[in-house]
Automatic annotation (TrEMBL):
InterPro entries: DNA-bd_dom_put_sf, HTH_17, SinI_DNA-bd. Coiled coil: none annotated. The keyword Ion transport does not apply. This is DNA-binding protein. The lineage of its organism: Bacteria, Bacillati, Actinomycetota, Actinomycetes, Pseudonocardiales. Keywords: DNA-binding. Residues 12-60 form the Helix-turn-helix domain. One of its GO terms (molecular function) is DNA binding.
Length: 91
């Protein structure tokens, strides 16, 4: 089954779209992104949020049945990246 580009799911959301999906204020999400507490990609002065990150958060909350600490998840991800960088990618 082939999907047209118009109907394909995006890879990234704008911050406003992600905030709307998560039912929070965009300024709250911007603040979390700037503090390194929420995953995003910065392209010059613009941020975009990976759809996979929003999906992961929703899945984590559904699976755990509790509150998901996005800042902790982001910190763990940064730590894993730093370890990979220091060890040459070996785990």
């Amino acid at each position: 089954m082939e999907t047209s580009a118009e109907n394909a799911r995006p890879t990234f959301y704008t911050v406003r779209e992600a905030a709307q999906i998560m039912r929070c204020n965009p300024s709250t999400l911007y603040r979390a992104i700037r503090e390194g507490a929420f995953p995003a990609v910065r392209v010059r002065t613009r941020y975009v949020v990976p759809v996979a990150a929003v999906d992961k958060l929703a899945n984590e909350a559904s699976t755990s049945g509790g509150c998901v600490d996005v800042a902790r998840m982001a910190a763990e991800h940064r730590t894993a990246q730093e370890i990979a960088r220091l060890t040459g990618g070996a785990r």
